[in-house]
Each structure stands twice: as C-alpha cells, then as structure tokens.
Automatic annotation (TrEMBL):
The chain crosses the membrane at residues 213-243, 263-289. Signal peptide: none annotated. The keyword Ligase does not apply. Pfam families: Metallophos. GO terms for cellular component: membrane. This is Calcineurin family phosphoesterase. It comes from the Archaea. InterPro entries: Calcineurin-like_PHP (IPR004843), LpxH-like (IPR043461), Metallo-depent_PP-like (IPR029052).
Amino acid sequence: MADDAEGPVYYVVSDLHIGGDDQLGEVDFLEELLDFLERLETTDEDAELIVNGDAFGLWEFTEVERLAKFEALTERYPELFEQLRATGASIPITMLPGNHDHELAAYDEYVERLAAYNVDLVRAESITRPVGDRTVHFEHGNQQDPNNRFEDFGNPYETPMGYFYNTHVTSRAGRLSERGRYNWLKDVQAVTPTERVPRWLFSKYFYREMNPLLRYAVIPFLLLLNVSLVIAVLAGLDVAGLWTMPVDTADAALARLGLVGEAVHFVLVVNAAIAGLLILVGIPLYFFLRDLRQTVDRFGVFETDLTVDPEEPYAAAAREVFADHPETAIFCYGHTHRPGVSEIDGRLLVNSGTWLKRFHHRDVVAGVLPPVFYPSYQLCVVRISADPAGVAVEFEQIEKTATTTEEITRIERLLTLGREPSPELPDRLVVGEPTATPPRDAESVPGR
C-alpha cells in the first residue's frame, strides 16, 4: 500500500484484549502481531502506530490487582514487549486506554512502565493527529456506550456494567474452559453482541458437549419439526371437517422407500403429536408472555440493551466532532469489534475492528436446530495517510497462519450448507476537502 502524497502515515489497531485469567491468557494471533510490529520496525515511512484502546484485557485479571497485572503481562509475553521496545525505537507507538484496560488511565505508574518499552501511553479519552491540513480524531469508543462509559475518566474505582460482566462471566469462562471438550468456553469474550451469548452457549452444548448418541438421536426429530407443525395444523383441520388429509397417498409414497420411509413416517407421527401439544400450549403462553413483556416495558425495568448499536451513537458523536472541528476528516474508533467505514457529512467514520476471533451467526437450513456460530479472524490494520485528493483510509488484513476449520463440525457445516460466511474488509476510500457541515442538533448528540 503506497500513496503519491508525502506526509505522516498512521497505522491503527485496536481491541487486542491481551491477557486475562487462565485460558484467556492464550493469544491466538501473537505470531502475526510480532511479524506486523517487526515490519513496522523497518519501515522507511514517517509512520506512527496508534493502539486505539483495549490493547490489554486488564478487566479479565481477577486474581491480581493494579500493577501486578502489568507484571503478569510482561512475564507471560516477554517477546511481545521486547518487540514493542524494538519497534518503538524506530517509530512512535501511541496507546489509548479502552474500557477493558481503563486502569492504564488510573495510575501514573503505567505511563512509566510502558515508556520503558517505548510506548507512549496517553491518558485521555481521545487524541487527534494531523494529515496535511486535515486532522484525524481517535477514540476507543466506549464513551459512546452507556454500559461501558466512565463518567469520571481515570477513576480506578468506577466500575460500569461491562466491568461486572467481564469479571464474573468472561474471567470465569477462562478458568473453566479446559473442562469442556475442545476448550471453547474461553471464546465467550469474542461473542458479540452480548445478547447472543445464551444462544452461543446452547449451540456449543448441542454441537460439542452433548452426548453424541443423544445428539444424533434428536437431530431427525428437530429437522422435521417444521414439517410436523404443518401436519399437526392440517390434522386439526381434518378433525374439524374443514379439510381432508391425503393420508393414503402420503403413506403409499413413504412405503416405496422401505425402511427409510418407515423411519420417516415414525418421526413424523411422533413429531406431529408433539407439535400439536406445543400449539395447544404455545397459543395461551404467547399471549401471557406478550402481556408480561408489555408490563415490564411499562415499568421500564430494562431501559437499555446489553450492547451498544455498532454505528448510530458513533455517527452522532462524529457529527459533533465534525461540527466543532471542521478540519477533521476522519473519526476513528474501535470497541464494537466490527471493522467498517461509512461516510458522514462528507467525512469518514472508521471502525478499526479487532484481532480477537469473531463469530458469525448462521441459522440452519431447516428444522429448529440451534444456530451455528462460524469463527473467523480479521486481523485488521487501518492505514491512514495523505493522498493527492485528500486523506486515504485503507484496511489491511493480516493473514492468519492457523485456521479455524476444525472448530466447526461436519454436522454444523451440513446444516448450514450454502450459508458459510465470507467476511471482507472495506475497500480503500479517500475523503476530500471539507464541505459545509449542517448545524448540530443538540438533541441528537449523546451525552458526554
């Protein structure tokens, strides 16, 4: 990747989440990260590496406190810190705190410790960098998330809701992960949005932890349950005299299949009986749950979702920055783990993604089986530089040496045939000269 225009070049990474209790300490991308840092060490560009928050998973350490967490990091990943020292001797490395490593902003000692490895820790919510006569705004993004916002930034005793989730759920998963088959539980930190965690847990139980004999016994019933629901409804119409089922024709067709037909007939009969019971119970239960949900909403028990919208709050925050600072060309954030770029008022809203494993939710092609969560890695580096037409943004995907194919079983692949994800990073974009920014609507800007 090269540009015709000269000037500073910024390489941006975020959401590495390095560290944590037990199994959370495994860094699947350590080799790739070391290679990337070594490459920057030898660059001839006027480059700066910006680590845009959540470099470390300090929230995920629950058995050590304060600077002992940093000592645990340096002892566990000595090659990483030595490479940071080497790369930082060649180009500036600037690190912003995120929510998972908010403690970096809370103690002066972290500035000194990281400076020893040639990393400049900026204890601020955001920074700006010049590109020609334009600027780039960087922030981690958790301040736009009500569940992870710090009203008193830098206060070590402030603990938003996300802190409790990570110390009680994520860290616990890291300690228990080895007990499961295939050591999968530690990946709970990669499941987004958080509302999907219960479905992900059930999916992993069904496809990984469940006794194989039990799993393969129930799969035929679950696959044909949708068909059985239709049969149950038609049977009810038949009993009511509103419609006559072609039973003889269906039985004759199944009889031609021999033992397979008999098996299908048995499954359909059992499923139809179960489906009928579900319909009888489900109709009154639906009205009861709807009334209960309306009551809960009326009292405002749950006023916010567990996770923030991946773009809308950041678009609003970007508009505010663009209005206050018209020279700003790019608003760059992380936090939501979703790499992407979009245009806002003639400028660019950029998400720097994550180096953690990502999961892609896929429903099965038939039946009522649990969804499948396909894993992938998008080791994402954002490159921001001057361009003859303005400021350019490029996404580079670092190739992952190890694959994740073994994490998906044959039955999961079969049940989602044709629905496999193929995630891609955005194309290169250039933002030109600033245009007039419409007045900011104060009511549309989230509270700071």
